[in-house]
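#struct-help
A.M.: can someone run this one for me? Single chain, 102 residues.
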Amino acid sequence: MAGKSRELPRPFTMPWGRGEIVEEVTAVGEWHEPSIQLLRYEDGSESIRFCHYDHRGRFQRSPLMVNRALLTQLGRALASSPRLRAHLGRLLAPRTRAPKRR
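D.P.: on it. Structure tokens below:
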């Protein structure tokens, strides 16, 4: 089951910068709604935020924990978020060679 659809883009502010959430995928779990967000800062740089909301839609400031079912939901939701999917693909991309050790 997909999570709540929130308006995009929408603003965010961090101590180190501000910008907009430009893509977001969510899932609905028993206790919370995990979310993966693509953040675009005012300078054009992008970051990914893993977070969650309670079932009332309030942002939560605690660790994000997801089980297999929620990971599956988030994975399916990524089909509609091409830039976010591309960024996350870097997590699984094979390395061409191991870094040199000194």
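A.M.: thanks! Helices lie at 68-77, 82-89.
D.P.: also worth noting: The chain has a mean pLDDT of 90.
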